[in-house]
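Hi all, long-time lurker, first post. I run a small reading group and we've been trying to get comfortable going from sequence to structure in the token notation. Rather than ask abstract questions, I figured I'd post a concrete chain and ask someone more experienced to write out its structure so we can walk through it together at our next meeting. Sequence below, copied exactly:
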Amino acid sequence: MTASRRRLLLTTSMTALAPALATLAALAMPLPALAVEAGHKKPLKLNSGAKPKVPPAASPAFGERADLMQFADREAAALGYEPGALRALLAQARLQASVQRLILPGAPGQAKDWGAYRQRFIEPRRLQAGLGFWADNEAALAKAEATYGVPAEIIASIIGIETFYGRIMGGYRVLDALTTLGFDYPNPLPPGARDRSEYFRDELRQFLILSRENGLDPLAMKGSYAGAMGWGQFMPGSWRRFAIDFDGDGHVDLINSQVDAIGSVANFLKAHGWQRGLPTHYEVQPPVDTAAKAQLLLSDVLPQLDVNQFLAAGADLSIAGLGHVGPLALIELQMGGAAPVYVAGTKNFYTVTRYNQSSYYAMAVIEFANTLASWRRAGTSQRSDSGAPATADAPVKATASTAASGAFAASAPSDEGGR
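-- Answer (accepted) --
Happy to help. Here is the structure in token form:
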């Protein structure tokens, strides 16, 4: 082959490779600085082993949409970002249609079934994982109980129900979820639903600050469809307000540190009113009179009535409940087509609902905690429904069909809750 022929082939090959080489060069370029200052906090490690998945190409990017860019320009200084950098970051968020579907409540009139809901979470595999989690973190759980007054089993239960002990922490990019719900909340809304876009815009603000304060990559952080993150599924605002450095390594890490998650859950509950040694609920038979029962149910989960008011309405409290000092709430747990189950909830029951605003969720946390503590004391992996409650009375047992398929989405862990 002549020299001129070789030069011609080389020139042709380089011309063909030019686009690919340009792409590789672009990918190798460093990303522009997102914040005015990254701070000096030790960056958190992203959890998992596997790299975060890039959203499917089918999910459209928000791009330089007017309302999102106006948000960036208006908020940049307060959030600690350069306006141009924040615009570039938010433009990379992608609309997630599945997030829009998941955030909506269940169909109106959908029957609630405490028995089905209970079985969905209080089952052998999750309890076995809970025993392992408790064994691995015995010292941290004991320290949290001593410091904040929240029983170790309640802390372990919340983490187990929220993420199956770190197995299910969410696969959505938090930036995508919060931008979708903040700027494209479902519309029109079904009957009974409300527009919570402003709530999620505020959580987007909190997430951007959280990322900057901790040196996190906001494009890599993953969580639930509503933007909750880590072992305890904290929303960004709650992470900033209630998460703590419980392992003493100098930074708060709810993604990789189980100890930080334990301390943060306990701190959240204490900050929301948990009282050391107070039972969560008592057994109760509601009034036979429908109108009297309806009056007791008016306050929902908020304790507002004392023992005398319960008795005057015709309710029959357990012996332990009769000795209670302080307000109570009549809690109704529907059982599908069967008769509802009732308990008298205390301020500690109400505190659990601040983590997730559902009485079914709160009772699942309490029942799981009771059973987990019972298994641990017994040193057995055999399922037992008898339990030894952290409350003054025995667990509330499901008496109707408990087919898991009957669990209702409206009261499943909602990711927003109060945390």
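A couple of things your group might point at:
Residues 2-41, 48-54, 381-392, 397-415 have pLDDT under 50 and may be disordered.
The beta strands are 172-173, 222-223, 281-285, 316-317, 329-335, 338-345.
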